[in-house]
């Protein structure tokens, strides 16, 4: 690594099969960055532990996510793709960073408050330290650029503060301040047309579902709520089906829907069928690749292990520098 424009790192919790929000809001961005940057992409299973009630399905979810990432175009030759816990140095760095993090900073973070609201019965120490672990992810690899959704902006700012505190406290430059890189699609709405697409809200459209399931899912999408009857004119500007047309349909169909919806020339059912057709067509190559990968999960595991080996080399080097900067007693090499 280290011959392109810079180092990119991003991570996502292993949520299993990915949906269109993940694809447009994260994965496509990961894929695009590979040609210009050295990229490291992590399936952050330790982060997942902060909120899960059971680890049943965790391994499967890591594999499902890896399959979707690979099918979408993450290239494990070019980039490093690995499972967070396979490089345990991140937990060591997490502990060392925690010494320069004031408690109040963690309790004040909006992301922490939100998680407390969502999981009031499980406010554990790990949850409080979630952003410190995320900082450790980024800093362990000295990443310069971190592509994430806008909801992660407080964590990125937090990471930058950790770098400044650490480097100042120990009079060093070992840690590098990362820059956030926002994504084009910050909030893909779910089938309800109101909330961010998310598995937990059951409003997602899976990228690797079959065509029929996709069409069925699209048919449940909420359209312009003011359009009650087929004969009512609609407003595509407030319709989530139309925003999907804009992402997946050819320009002539986007123009046609835009025009005909407003004069009740096309009904919601036909409009959705058309969108599902284009959505299925644009996902077809990804699904084809995924089907092939599903028959080779042993090979995918090898790629993940390989990624972890490469990541561990970078991590070991950083940890040597970090321990030295702190002034910890040296041990036999
Ligand atoms: P999550 O599944 O929430 O851990 O998210 C994984 C990645 O996908 C993050 O980078 C999110 O910002 C992105 N993401 C998830 N859901 C959406 C959505 N509905 N719209 C846009 N981006 C999303
Ligand atoms: N907190 C991120 C999220 O919920 C996931 C994450 C963990 C991450 N470690 C990271 C993202 C490091 C970018 C860099 O989406």
Describe the structure.
It contains 14 helices and five strands. With 333 residues, the protein is mainly α. The longest helix has 30 residues, at 297-326. The structure holds adenosine monophosphate and tryptophan (TRP). Residues 9-13, 44, 47, 134, 137-138, 146, 148, 152, 155 line the site of tryptophan.
Protein topology:
Elements: E1 7-12, H1 20-33, E2 38-43, H2 45-49, H3 58-72, E3 80-83, H4 89-98, H5 103-108, H6 110-118, H7 125-128, H8 130-140, E4 145-147, H9 153-170, E5 179-181, H10 211-219, H11 240-248, H12 251-262, H13 268-294, H14 297-326
Parallel strand pairs: 1-2, 2-3, 4-5
Helix pairs in contact: 3-13, 4-8, 4-14, 8-9, 10-13, 11-13
Bound molecules: adenosine monophosphate (AMP) and tryptophan.
Adenosine monophosphate is lined by residues 12-13, 15, 21-22, 25-26, 148-149, 185-188, 196-198.
By CATH, the architecture of the largest domain is named 3-Layer(aba) Sandwich
Bound small molecules, by name, code or SMILES, are: adenosine monophosphate, tryptophan
* CATH level 3 topology of the largest domain: Rossmann fold
Tally of DSSP β-strands: 5
Helix share, percent: 40-55%
Order of strands across the widest beta sheet? 1-2-3
> What structural category do the secondary elements indicate?
mainly alpha
The share of residues in extended strands comes to: 5-15%
Distance between the termini: 24 Å
CATH class category name of the largest domain: Alpha Beta
Number of domains: 2
Query: How large is the count of helical segments?
Result: 14
C-alpha Rg (nearest Å): 22 Å
Order of helices and strands: EHEHHEHHHHHEHEHHHHH
């Amino acid at each position: 690594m280290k011959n392109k424009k810079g180092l990119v790192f991003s991570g996502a919790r292993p949520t299993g099969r990915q949906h269109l929000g993940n694809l447009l809001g994260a994965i496509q961005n990961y894929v695009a960055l590979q040609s210009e940057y050295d990229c490291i992409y992590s399936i952050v299973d330790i982060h997942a532990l902060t909120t899960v009630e059971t680890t049943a399905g965790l391994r499967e979810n890591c594999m499902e996510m890896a399959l979707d990432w690979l099918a979408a175009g993450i290239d494990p030759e070019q980039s490093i793709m690995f499972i967070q816990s396979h490089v345990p140095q991140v937990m060591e760095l997490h502990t060392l960073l925690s010494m320069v993090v004031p408690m109040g900073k963690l309790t004040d973070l909006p992301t922490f408050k939100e998680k407390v609201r969502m999981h009031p019965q499980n406010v554990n120490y790990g949850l409080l330290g979630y952003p410190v672990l995320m900082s450790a992810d980024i800093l362990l690899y000295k990443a310069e650029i971190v592509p994430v959704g806008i909801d992660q902006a407080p964590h990125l700012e937090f990471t930058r503060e950790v770098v400044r505190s650490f480097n100042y406290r120990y009079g060093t430059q070992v840690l590098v301040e990362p820059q956030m890189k926002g994504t084009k699609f910050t909030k893909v709405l779910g089938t309800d047309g109101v909330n961010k697409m998310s598995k937990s809200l059951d409003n997602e459209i899976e990228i690797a579902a079959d065509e029929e399931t996709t069409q069925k899912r699209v048919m449940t999408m909420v359209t312009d709520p003011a359009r009650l009857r087929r004969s009512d004119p609609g407003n595509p500007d407030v319709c989530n089906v139309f925003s999907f047309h804009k992402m997946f349909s050819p320009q002539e169909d986007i123009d046609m829907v835009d025009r005909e919806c407003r004069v009740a020339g096309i009904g919601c059912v036909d409009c959705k069928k058309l969108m599902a057709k284009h959505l299925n067509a644009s996902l077809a190559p990804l699904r084809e690749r995924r089907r092939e990968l599903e028959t080779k999960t042993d090979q995918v595991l090898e790629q993940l292990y390989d990624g972890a080996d490469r990541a561990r080399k970078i991590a070991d080097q950083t940890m040597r520098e970090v321990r030295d900067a702190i002034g910890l007693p040296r041990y036999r090499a």
